[in-house]
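FORM 12-B: Structure-to-Sequence Request
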């Protein structure tokens, strides 16, 4: 079964995460395929807007921690750093700067690395049952690799979510400006489609310039530099885990995600 589905119609490319049996946990192959789908949409002159959605009950449970990691005693900080730089930080930044408007449709759980899929999108529409969380402080790490927390939530709400590990509800996310709209679950796809059609009617060059203006304003304020520097802070958590106990910090979060898959 394909982990990523792609469809383009009426100027809208729809990219769907397609691992519902695993709560759309992200394998490295899934991320590679997702990047290929975004690239395909960017290159298609008929595509005006890109929608990212997910099949199943949950948007994404984050990284699939069983996927292609070296075994105990084999994993190194260099391996982790190189793998996460490419597929986590660089992919997310590339999707953020896609020269076309992007919309994320989020339902159910969006955990940790799930944030690295919706945060790079220009707009987020959430179902009423959506919950956003980053519980990796439980693993001894200060936050997921694409550290948009302060910008997306504001500093105090970001600290609360990280310090406690509790999920942010869809309505809370809308109040702090992280989510554009909250809609009933059964209206999510139609609402996103209507929004995409409205945007697709705008001049493509104007949309591209508007997106660049907002993104570059954030970058001048330090957004890009902050993501780069906090990514290195993130790696110190991995280094500490390796030095203390050989990286079993994956176990706790893995068990939590297994419970989610059975929910």
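FORM 12-B RESPONSE
SEQUENCE OUT:
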């Amino acid at each position: 079964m394909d982990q990523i589905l792609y469809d383009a119609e009426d100027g809208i490319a729809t990219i769907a995460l397609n691992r519902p049996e695993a709560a759309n946990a992200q394998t490295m192959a899934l991320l590679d395929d997702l990047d290929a789908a975004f690239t395909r949409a960017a290159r298609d002159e008929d595509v005006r807007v890109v929608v990212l959605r997910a099949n199943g009950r949950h948007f994404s449970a984050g990284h699939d921690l069983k996927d292609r990691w070296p075994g105990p005693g084999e994993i190194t900080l260099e391996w982790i750093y190189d793998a996460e730089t490419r597929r986590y930080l660089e992919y997310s930044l590339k999707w953020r700067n896609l020269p076309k408007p992007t919309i994320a449709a989020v339902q159910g759980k969006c955990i940790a690395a799930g944030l690295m899929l919706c945060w790079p999108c220009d707009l987020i529409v959430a179902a009423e049952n959506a919950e956003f969380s980053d519980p990796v402080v439980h693993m001894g790490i200060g936050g997921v690799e694409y550290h948009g927390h302060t910008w997306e939530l504001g500093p105090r709400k970001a600290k609360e979510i990280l310090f406690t590990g509790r999920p942010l509800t869809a309505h809370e996310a809308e109040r702090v400006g992280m989510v554009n709209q909250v809609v009933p679950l059964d209206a999510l796809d139609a609402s996103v489609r209507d929004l995409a059609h409205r945007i697709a009617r705008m001049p493509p060059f104007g949309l591209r310039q508007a997106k660049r203006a907002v993104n570059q304003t954030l970058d001048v304020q330090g957004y890009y530099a902050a993501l780069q520097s906090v990514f290195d802070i993130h790696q110190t958590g991995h280094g500490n885990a390796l030095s203390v106990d050989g990286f079993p910090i994956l176990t706790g979060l893995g068990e939590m995600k297994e419970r989610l898959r059975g929910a």
